[in-house]
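Final report, closing paragraph on structural work. Over the funding period we assembled a curated collection of sequence-structure pairs, and we close with a single example.
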Amino acid sequence: MNYLDALRINGKVFETVSGKWQAEVTNTPKQEHSDKILYEVRFRQDSQQRDLRLFISDAGIHHDARRYYERRIFDSVKQWLDLESGDGELEVF
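Its predicted structure, as stored:
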């Protein structure tokens, strides 16, 4: 499976209370453990940037025809951008 196509985060713009952040996947997403897929995502806003190690479920993204899991991932990323500062790590299962 092409994980870049499975989770449509590359190039996505997240609107937060601090403004718009554009996502860029900086790795080739790969399976880290039995069900974990790792995306390394850089977010840019003007001259600022933040990096996120995002772990998602392989099974969850494979069985997400209606994109419910993807929306939950995006909601979690937006919350991370709103509430956290600096770089970080996030797991959405």
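The beta strands are 13-16, 19-25, 30-31, 36-45, 48-57, 88-92. Helices lie at 3-6, 58-62, 68-83. We thank the funder for supporting this effort.
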